[in-house]
Design brief:
heterodimer, A: alpha/beta, Rossmann fold, 4 strands, B: FAD/NAD(P)-binding domain, 5 domains, five-stranded parallel beta sheet, binds flavin-adenine dinucleotide, binds iron/sulfur cluster
């Protein structure tokens, strides 16, 4: 049997983590192919409903990453994101989503190696947790309901 | 119908050696809405760009995805190419196949598959892109400079000499700041007043500069190029247009015992006063808190004496509104009162003074006319101890930073003392000598070698009085922490340079950030040292961090040049990535419910309200409205809005959702 290859979406901000991931590339540090990045202007822009959408569309894991506290290009977007994450975590619990499936982190534009570490460790965690289909099923059902 | 062109770059071999670029072009060419796809060795090269431009024209493309290096590298290049071919530049997106794929993975099927996924995601996004147009905002070519120390003076003169109007607002009755209080200045020992006062006069006489002293910023609204400032001109109780500055009033005022701020309490002044003889403007103000008439209802001696009839007891504060295009903050710093350090005895013993007080004693225009005399009895001190880092570099007392100027001015003080008091003995307790500046180390060497100042490396633990002497106890750490005791006649504390008392409040008024010590924060510690995080507001001088005069002046000229660059444009062009609140036909008008969650989240105060009215002017609905001049496009508001009424161009909800869906649906 082939090994389970998780699908992981990374929601990152343009100024810190996206640039940090660029540096991982420039430094030629290798990491797993499972993580694919979507670029946002700021973590403050990340509507956490998008995370649910990603699970609904079949993601097995998610990374949210932006600037360190006080480093936000827009001064405080990352603080809003952090507060939102704290609220959202409770909601995930209620929905029965294992919060280990979401990795929330800070990676600056200078932390190329850290980005590779986060990708690899997230892939490892999600691999251990196995494929995630529960939420997709619920979401798929709900969508059908709405249509009918 | 979308007609998207996909252009895959090999980046020499950087991408093509691990990603099967031909297959990526093939696979993405099959996507719905993709009209054309190809791969090429160097997309960014001239021939590469030509392929894109020609395809746009020949196939009538409505959108372009260039899959190459990071957009942080070449997005401007490809957007420009699209524009040259007649396609709106914001209809071009880049997929990052190099930094985020080929450079971080080995050659494999999975790597190529990831590349296909990444390109597909951007194809789906670009289908939803809208043409965007740079936002144009007009520029009011008048600068507001806050603070008339050497920083504000330099910035004002530079901007005014470039032909622009400047309004210089100073809170005190005269401009000059701390530099006007200094005796001689390191590292050249030239007289501070002699180099400063000509500039002060130049400011007052410059046709492009309007000087308002005894005035402060009340309110600041608006955005880069278009600020609205409200200035409070405090009542001076004189009519400046009539007063000729003869000074009769100040000689006869009966309230004479007020400690002079300019002389740091070592001299006195009257209630109607000019802070110092070279003050600009050289016209008095009445200090209401200390004036007998204001306090007790009678006196008015100055009014009787004034030959021009300029005294106005009924004068009120005046609020003036100004339109300005840029602001330079040059409000300087303050010297910490070392009373929080009981071990030094400041406040307890008259002859323990601060460095700034020593400047006044050493100044030819000071209370002792430049002779070093003890405040207690006017005697000339035979032994003097200087304590460096009195308050600085002391995390326990809340100031972990180095005040930067004290090592140098302490060396200067000891030197001045040795020059003025022949046979006197001077000692400096120090932690390290920080003399990194042009000719600074040489200056300190001169103090040590030529003027025989005794440097003792160690801290002072206690200062107390005994038999009319100040006993200074400390250690010499270079001699195995040997205790040292000096019987001194005077002690001078190099007390820390701190932020102004009102700095925090001022920063909040202007929406600029400040650090944990209340110094104003620059936009980037290395690359944007004179900008603040609010576009159009710049920093000059010691309000940003302690600094000496050469550094202050360079930063002030730097800030001025930023203002001049801004004023060289009639209109400003801004990235059109901004938030918008939706509008729809009546009876809905907008799905916005007016909760203003977005406004509370916006870091730039860019969201205000708009009243939707009917033809008769009755308010139908109160909704949020984004000021595109202020919005920086972070999108925080979008994530906050519960009714999905606010969205951001370039990163819209629709675009982000379609990216998520496209990324995951690859089977
Ligand atoms: C004891 C001592 C000795 C020194 N010796 C030397 C030396 O020998 N050589 C050297 O290079 N440097 C020396 N310095 C450093 C020098 O004083 C500073 O570099 C310089 O004064 C900084 O200028 P500035 O204009 O930024 O600030 P400041 O001189 O502090 O001027 C700020 C101005 O802004 C005004 N202001 C404050 N708040 C407001 C407000 N809200 N609205 C309007 N106006 C406001 C203030 O009244 C003041 O006029 C010394 C400093 C000290 C303390
Ligand atoms: S746009 Fe949204 S968050 Fe802002 S006021 Fe309207 S409903 Fe509230
Ligand atoms: S995008 Fe950011 S800056 Fe613009 S209005 Fe929204 S919160 Fe404010």
């Amino acid at each position: 049997m082939t090994e389970f290859e998780p699908k992981i979406v990374a929601f990152v901000c343009n100024w810190c983590t996206y640039a940090g991931a660029d540096l991982t590339g420039t430094s030629r540090i290798k990491y797993a192919q499972n993580v694919k990045i979507i670029r946002f202007p700021c973590t403050g822009r990340i509507d956490f409903m998008l995370l649910l959408k990603a699970f609904g569309e079949g993601a097995d894991g998610i990374i949210v990453s932006g600037c360190h506290p006080n480093d936000c290009h827009y001064t405080s977007g990352n603080f809003h994101a952090r507060r939102r994450w704290i609220m959202f975590r409770g909601l995930l619990d209620l929905l029965g989503i294992d919060i280990r499936r979401i990795q929330y982190s800070w990676v600056s534009a200078a932390e190329g190696a850290k980005w590779a570490d986060i990708v690899n460790s997230t892939v490892k965690t999600i691999r251990e947790l196995g494929p995630y289909t529960d939420y997709a099923k619920v979401a798929g059902y709900l969508e059908k309901e709405v249509k009918e | 119908m979308s007609k998207i062109g996909v252009f895959i770059c090999h980046c020499g071999e950087n991408i093509s050696s691990t990603v099967d670029v031909v297959r990526v072009a093939e696979e993405t060419g099959k996507l719905e809405g993709v009209e054309f796809s190809t791969d090429y060795k160097y997309m960014c090269s001239d021939p590469g760009q030509t392929i894109i431009k020609q395809t746009i024209k020949e196939k009538g493309l409505t959108g372009v995805v260039v899959a190459a290096c990071s957009p942080r590298m070449h997005e401007p290049t490809f957007r420009k190419a699209c524009q040259e071919a007649g396609l709106n530049p914001y209809m071009c997106e880049m997929s990052n196949l190099r930094e985020h794929c080929s450079w971080v993975h080995d050659k494999s099927e999975a790597t190529t598959q990831k590349a296909i996924d990444l390109v597909r995601t951007l194809v789906e996004k670009v289908k939803l892109n809208k043409p965007l147009y740079p936002i144009k905002v007009p520029v009011t070519k008048t600068a507001l400079v806050l603070g008339g120390g050497i920083a504000g003076i330099q910035a004002s003169l530079d901007i005014a000499n470039a032909g622009h109007k400047v309004i210089l607002v100073e809170k005190d009755p005269s401009i000059g700041g701390h530099m006007s209080q200094l005796s001689e200045t390191f590292p050249t020992l030239d007289c501070s007043q002699c180099i400063l006062t000509p500039r002060m006069v130049e400011v007052a006489q410059h046709p492009n500069i309007t000087l308002w002293t005894y005035a402060e910023l009340e309110k600041l609204e608006g955005f880069i190029g278009n600020f609205k400032a409200t200035i409070r001109k405090k009542a001076k109780s004189i009519d400046e247009n009539i007063c000729n500055g003869c000074g009769h009033c100040t000689t006869k005022c009966p309230t004479k015992k007020i400690p002079s701020e300019f002389n740091t309490g070592l001299g006195t002044r009257t209630a109607i006063y000019v802070p110092f003889p070279q003050a600009v403007p050289n016209k008095p103000v009445i200090d209401k808190d200390n004036c007998t008439y204001y306090q007790k209802g009678k006196c008015k001696i100055c009014e009787k004496l004034c030959p021009t009839g300029a005294i106005r007891f009924d004068q009120q504060d005046e609020l003036v509104e100004l339109e300005v295009g840029a602001v330079v903050i040059a409000t300087g710093f303050n010297v910490m009162q070392p009373s929080g350090f009981p071990e030094y005895g400041y406040g307890k013993y008259k002859d323990v003074i601060t460095g700034l007080q020593f400047e006044r004693l050493a100044s030819a225009s000071g209370p002792t006319l430049g002779e070093i005399r003890r405040p207690s009895d006017g005697k000339i001190p035979e032994k003097i101890v200087f304590v460096a880092c009195a308050g600085s570099r002391d995390p326990a007392k809340g100031i972990p930073y180095c005040s930067k100027i004290c090592c140098m001015y302490t060396a200067k003080h000891a030197m001045l003392y040795q020059h003025k008091v022949h046979g006197g003995k001077s000692y400096i307790f120090y932690m390290d000598i920080r003399a990194a500046g042009k000719n600074y180390e040489e200056f300190v060497r001169r103090a040590i070698v030529d003027d025989e100042v005794n440097y003792i490396r160690g801290r002072v633990s206690k200062v107390y009085e005994e038999n009319g002497k100040l006993i200074v106890k400390g250690v010499d750490t270079l001699l195995n922490a040997k205790p040292v005791e000096i019987e001194a006649d005077m002690v001078v504390l190099a007390s820390a340079a701190v932020a102004n008392p009102g700095a925090e409040e001022l920063a909040q008024k202007m929406h600029v950030s400040y650090d944990s010590y209340n110094f104003f924060s620059e936009a980037h510690p290395k690359l944007k040292p004179v900008e603040t995080n609010t576009a159009g507001i710049f920093l000059a001088g010691a309000c940003q961090a302690p600094k000496d005069i050469p550094e202050t002046v360079s930063q002030a000229s730097g800030a001025a040049s930023k203002v001049i660059i801004l004023f060289s444009q009639n209109e400003l062009s801004r990235e059109p990535v901004v938030a918008v609140v939706n509008r729809s036909a009546p009876p809905v008008y907008s799905t916005c419910v007016g909760c203003f969650m977005c406004a509370s989240a916006c870091p730039y105060q860019a969201i205000g309200e708009e009243l939707i009215t009917d033809r008769k002017g009755n308010v139908i609905k109160r909704v949020a409205k984004v000021n595109p001049g202020l919005c920086q496009g972070c999108g925080t508001c979008v994530a906050f809005c519960r009714s999905k009424s606010i969205d951001i161009d370039g990163y819209s909800n629709e675009q982000m959702y379609s990216e998520v869906m496209a990324l995951l649906n690859n089977d």
